[in-house]
Amino acid sequence: MAAALLAGCEVIGENERLIPTAVDIDAAGKAHVLIEYTGFRCVNCPKAAEVAESLHQAYGEQLIVVAMHPASNPFTQGVAEYDYTSPAADIYYSDMGGNATTAFPTGNLNMQSDADGYLHDYSLWPTMLAAVAGEKAGVFVHPEATLDESTHQVTVRTTCYAEQPYDGNLLLWLVEDSIQGAQLMPDGTVSTQYYHRHVLRQALTEPYGQTLAFAVQPATHELQFTLPEQYNRAHCSIVAVALNDNNEIINARQTPIQ
Amino acid sequence: MKDRRGYMVLLLCCMAIGLWAHDTVYVSGGIQHDGLFPTQPVSTYRTTPRAPWAKIDHLSNNYIDLSVHYLRMKDSEEDGSHLRGIQADTRIELNQWPLLGYEPGFAGHGIGRLSLKADFDWGSVSIGDVYGQFGSGMLLNLYENRDLGIDNYLRGAKLDVMPYRGIRLMAIGGKQRRYWNCYEDRAWGWNYTQDAAMGVNMELGIHDFVPYMHQEGIHLSVGGSYVSKYEHDDTLLVYQPDGWYRYNLPRWVGAGEVRASLQAKGWDALVEYAYKANDPTAENGMSYRPGQALLLSLSYSRKGLAVLAQAKHSDNMSFRSSRNQRGLAGRLNLLPVFTPQQTYSLAAIYPYATQYATGEWAFQAELRYTWGKKTKMGGKYGTTLKLSAAHVRGLRNEGSWAVDMTANGEYYTDVNIELNKRVTRNWWTTAMLLYQAYNQQVIVGKGSMVRAGIAVWENKVKITDQFTLRNELQYLYTRQDAGQWLSLLLELDLWQCLTVSGEYSYNAGNGSEHPSGHYYTVAAAYTRDAHRLSIGYTKNNDGYNCAGGVCRYMPEQEGVTMSYSFNW
Fold this sequence. Notes:
heterodimer, A: five-stranded antiparallel beta sheet, B: about 575 residues, 3 helices
């Protein structure tokens, strides 16, 4: 024990703290979904948002970021004007083990759990993503969304197919990006010019989607909903998610509302 | 299953030893149950979501402690073993559906602790689940606190040696407990970090080597500690504008501490300095900056007078066994908190939580003076005055020793004056005025600076030898947060075994964000010998329960409460 203690301190020099590495991002692979649990009262959440955004830039279409504001956590509560909560966010958060005491920011990748559960600190997101970056998908979803300006009706057509017949679920989310609002910043100030990115506004289907048999032959499924007027259409998009029977995400695609 | 077999073998060995040597064997232990029958399903609580155990109508924390003691009656030097005794400890925890507010990992059941300790003339050896503290705990403080749900022992071994009078050495090491994993593949198991922590501590009593000091009643002690944790390498990536990188993580993180204390003629001085090498963790944002802490304390006491002044600086001194761990579990150290632990309910609404990662400067001073009996100020029975002040501020910059004097740099202030007086032979009274400043944004991550004034008046009247009545009247004024509070407590102690109490609190509210509310608790507690049973009904607002600067969020709850404890 004495020898271990004498050797028990490793000091990393300032120029040695980051080691360049390569991450394999396969453009033909599946798209992953990073769920970011956040709140406008959470002082460290902007840092997590920066990490999510940097990953979004690195992975491009292979990564879809969705920010969820669960009402059951105090970091999202208290000011109606900055209410970005949604019932679906509450359900996912609760089912992943989140509650009023869960430290924010936290997140989840592909609705999957590991030995440490569903929720992970944002410092782990890059590593988690790199571990799955090269995965292939056997199930595919391609959404298209168009808005009728006169009725505010959005028609979502999702083309679904699989390399082999597969029974899964199709889930559709409405996401709004760049919502300007207040945010508590890491330096303790409140920024009213903050842009909340990729906010989940609502699940357009049941929270875990509708049962769907993904066939080899592509099939298109249509859904219509009314886009609330307070949402900025130019920043809204549809995320189509394919789930397996464990409610884990096996592929996803995001498309803007045209 | 493996743990239960081990426990039985342990117990049988101890009993066999006792029978063979005709020495003493006895068993001690305790049972503790704290339960809540919520009146509403857990999922409907304002601040709690639907939880896996929401379908259960009863929430409870349950502990069964058992210790088997073997004491040698023979002179231990006769056979050369120097063995004085052996103690085996175990604790069974049944917390599948715990009370509200505990971290998700706290829920679980099984044998929470198992250890064996042998006492010798020269010290002790422990194997199994061991606790320990070095100095003030700034590097290592392994303890159990059931109110907070903390149990951070090391599973390994501890050696505590006094090779000579005035010299004490301690070595400890093992893997740290981190809640349960019984809902995974291993049932009846507990989770612990896959890596290890270890430490050594030395205390040297100079006064034991200098006869003059011993004769004059001067106690001078110096000490030092070293704690190191080993954690396997991990691939933690970060994306920078120029590409991907991985963190070069230290597998060994070491921390050292030196301390000195001097006690003489009523004076007590302590200085303690700790340094931690680079320890990038999720809690400090993967910072490689070393951590430091300095503690200075000076006090004086004599009959009727006690004075205390102390200061503490800490910076990046969170020391955990796992770099990715957050929350209450997995902490190796516990920085002393220099804020008072308030016991009156309204004074405890805004408790301080130590800022481990970002650091702080904390100052505390206290004066306690007692006017004796039959004096002008003391009256017939004496009067005690206590003045207390605590102030905590942030650091100006990362790694800085300078104090942040900006408005947001004030983390916490508590200034209070308390008067205790025995008015008559059967009447005691206490009056207290407090001012508190509480930086919600820093301490709990949301809100603003709360400034509150609190007044408390407590009386205890011994009506007869069998009946004692105690009452508390409290008032809190603030323009921030939830606004004003008024609280009244009545407690009747009957026949020295039955206590009946009722507490009512009214919160006036503060705008739509904080609606007004009525909160109350009624309870009856019966104590007989080692048994204590309490039954009551409560409706509580949400808040924080803190001890030693570590806090747990407690959601709002309403329901029938029941507590039982038995110790033998």
